[in-house]
Amino acid sequence: MRSTKRLICMLLLFTMLVSLFTACGSEKPAADSTTANSSAAANSSSTAKPFDDTKINFIGFGAMWTNEIVANLDKFKEETGITVNFQQLANDQLSNKIAVSSAAGGSDLDVIAFRPLQETLLFTNNGWVEPLDEYISKSPDFDINDFFESGKDICAIDGKMYGIPLMTEREIVYYNKELFAQAGITSVPKTMDELMEAAKKLNNPEKGIAGIAIRGKGSDAVTQFSGFLRAFGGDFIVDGKAAINTPEAIKAFQFYGDLLKNYGPAGVANMGWTETQSLFTQGKAAMRIDADSQYGFALDPKSSLISDKVGYFVLPEGPAGAKPFNIVAWALGISSGSKNKDASWEFIKWSLGKEMDVKTALAGNPSTRNSTWTNKEANKNFPADLVEVINQTNPIGVGTDRPFMINVGEARTVIGNVITGAILGKDVTAMANKANEDFQKLLDKEAKK
Amino acid sequence: MAKTAKSNKITGNIIFYLLLVIILICATFPFIWMVLASFKSMVDLLNVDKMFIFKPTFQPYLDVFSKYDFLRPIFNSLLVGVVSTVLSLIFGLPTSYSIAREKQTIFSGIILVIRIIPAISFLVPWYIIFNKLGLTGTYTALILAHLLVSLPLIIWIMIPYYEQLPKELEQAAWVDGCSRVGTFFKIMLPLSTPGILTSSILAFIFSWNNFIFALVLGTNDTKTLPTAVFNFVSYTEINWSSLMAAAVLITLPILIISLALQRYVIAGLTAGAVKG
């Protein structure tokens, strides 16, 4: 019996070691395959019809943009001969799949969609995405200067572009016009104090209507909280140091917590964007703060009871002004392990080129190109009052909505704890001090690398 | 005296059934909600007032097949599930027979280790190996990955099964001139049919539900049902109605199999549980 036990232990150890070694050995083949790729690419580009019968894998997320692109893939094949194999995943699954595949060489990935604020640093640090400058300079028609400057900045590391911005989003306030009229509010809140006041007036627990609904669930809430944090004069990181326990930050936590604790829906501390969206579209929340890219759901009578009552306004200003985020939510990049880099670029050039960009804008995608936003025809499907709010938000918008770092996931959890704690009425100062320590540790860990 | 015993029994019964109903409601509520939701439009689904009373619509089910092409993943799941289960049986049954009869504890130990290690830790090595063999994104890769889990499962369910079958049956066959292989096929296999059924149902259910292997090793052409569900989750909205319709479609086969073959599933779960 004892020998069997020992045997099992030995075997267990052996199996673990084997998988460890196999995992470590992955770096080399990745390097080999890159050199092989570039020569293959050079060969293919010299022939007359370079992309006939080429197949590329594109993994991305689901959105109005993706639907429109997928619907036009046949045309793309006609023009270039490239067959695009699209796989749709949700945010975290997408990130995981890219990580596992890339760690093993990434040869089965070609075009990848990623969230620049969440993943650029991680992907470039590990060499998982290809620098695109060479391709961009070869394609003058693509007109890279047409993209928003802030969008390009966030996709670039050390002066090299690793992604092409695909979709922007801004933090705005959605509101229910009918409930505003019933409460006798004639003008939309312009300051944070007015916002609190309005939420108080609109809050009607007996009828099950909350004054305001914003994300309250830890790490999810961080992005929406950023607008409040900055409006009160704080930020996540100041001069490279964690700054979430400054007096400004604590005021912001307190305000966000009080707002949702007193006038938010029941159970708001567990809510993410889907829950607040449902409440708002069901007429159970008078105001909702989140990204403008989600406007479609509230306007569709198939999913919304208030489709004809939706209004929008710019995030109100705090002591330090109005500071909503204006970010690039998604970008397209090319996997370093790809065997079809030229064909992949061809796809990016087409899907984010001026012509398709107008088409995707018509389908409801908030574009990242100046030319599309100034094109009245391209924006005709956006609600006019939303475009107005977007144009007001664009110049004041801040380019990040979360701490820009590699380990942003853990940082969001740390900061999110304080937000949830504030909503639940815990001691904000103590929590913020503790969180600031943990947050600083995360930053230190990255500085060492 | 007799009367109190009887009334005691009645109160006991009432408590028993009351508890049963409470547990049943708790256990089946998510399923009931899922089925109800799959017949609702998005507006009704999010509306708490229309929990039970609503105008049913088949639109979510139509969407599942027209807007999202759900047939392919159904086919993929069936193919991967059936092939990996059949292969596991072909490799697993002789293995468990020989382990049971020849007391090959070393082999069974190795297999147990494979079963104990979380399957996810194999994922990256597997991915690298498949990548080098050019197998990523193929059915072969998925089937091999599923074998890794279903094979040990089948072997470990079948070992006690073969152990409890009397040796005398085989010996009688040998006396009559049957070969060892012959006895396995002619005597042992037919006798172990219930065990085979049990283990293959469990292996199939595992394969049907598996998410992580299909996520990493599959592509768009080979994606199985659990990963296809993510088609309904987009960045700006979630199509709950169709998501629930898809969930019903995915759960249905497993539900039918489990109900129809309940006896075997339970037998499999308790096989060898009280062996001295």
UniProtKB/TrEMBL annotation, chain A:
Pfam families from the UniProt entry: SBP_bac_1
UniProt keyword terms in alphabetical order: Signal, Sugar transport, Transport
PROSITE patterns the record matches: PROKAR_LIPOPROTEIN
Coiled coil regions in record: none
Signal sequence range: 1-25
Transport in keyword set: yes
Gene3D superfamilies listed in its UniProt record: Periplasmic binding protein-like II (3.40.190.10)
Identification of the protein by name: ABC-type sugar transport system, periplasmic component
Automatic annotation (TrEMBL), chain B:
Main location: membrane
InterPro entries: BP-dep_ABC_trans_perm (IPR050901), MetI-like (IPR000515), MetI-like_sf (IPR035906)
Gene Ontology BP terms: transmembrane transport
One Pfam family from the record: BPD_transp_1
ABC transmembrane type-1 domain span: 74-261
UniProt subcellular location: Cell membrane
Cellular component, GO, one term: plasma membrane
TM ranges: 12-36, 74-93, 105-129, 141-162, 196-218, 238-261
Membrane topology: Multi-pass membrane protein
Gene3D superfamilies: MetI-like
Keywords linked to the UniProt accession: Cell membrane, Membrane, Sugar transport, Transmembrane, Transmembrane helix, Transport
Family affiliation: Belongs to the binding-protein-dependent transport system permease family.
Name listed for the protein in its UniProt record: ABC-type sugar transport system, permease component
Provenance organism: Ruminiclostridium cellobioparum subsp. termitidis CT1112
